Amino acid sequence: MIITDSLATFGRYCLFMKRVFTLPDRWGVTARRTVAEISKLGLDSIPLVIVISLFIGAVCAIQMQLNIMSPLIPAYTVGLATREIVLLEFSNSILCLILAGKVGSNIASEIGTMRVTEQIDALEIMGVNSANFLVLPKIVGFVAFMPVLGILSMTTALVGGYLVAVFTDIFTISRYVYGLQALFQEWYVWYGLIKSLVFAFIIVSTTAFFGYHVKGGALEVGKASTNGVVASSILILFFDVILTKLMLQ
Description:
It is a single chain. The longest helix is centred in the middle third of the chain and has 40 residues, at about 75-115. Helix 1 packs across helix 6, helix 6 (about 130-165) crosses helix 7 (about 175-180) and helix 6 (about 130-165) crosses helix 8 (about 185-210). By secondary structure, the protein is mainly alpha-helical. It has one domain. The chain is elongated, with a radius of gyration of 21 Å. The protein has helices spanning about 1-20, 25-40, 45-65, 75-115, 120-125, 130-165, 175-180, 185-210, 220-249. The mean pLDDT is about 85. The two termini are about 35 Å apart.
């Protein structure tokens, strides 16, 4: 029963995406809506990304130092390990799980409210492809801005570790900076950005799907928002395993 329902939901999702990715009727309107979505979904997420990344980077650096206090391990390992954690996992997977709660719930509740208040039905009556009109600018806007958030997260997290070295004596600044530079692989940055693009698409498309297919009243909008965030989080973790296997083997 669960498998049958999952397959049916996946089929509706594919049909929904087919409607979303059609040529817009009015390119100018789509472009203006895309810019607005970049501001709402992307720019408004910057403060959250900075705060979370700053503290996570600091915590990673402190925990690395506390757990590798051995004369057999080089002192610069703190910076190296912090950098690898941030580039490989935090700045893409963990960050997108957090953004799924903020951005995803916003999208699901917005579209769900439009559905229950019959605004989407009004668009359909006027001959507008409502899925394309409402969802495509959100997908394009958030996916296009996600690399900015990813780079910002990477930088801020590493700065968080640096601030620990500046304001405490847990480890020295020179050792931390040397660790950040040691054995650096550029591919890890691209790997993180590629994953963040995939996860950004998952967040927007999944939560928009649940919001678009709401049936009922305000209570159902809340349920759709919750289901969308949960589903997108599970898919992020699932594709995290797949992409890691494909790109780092």
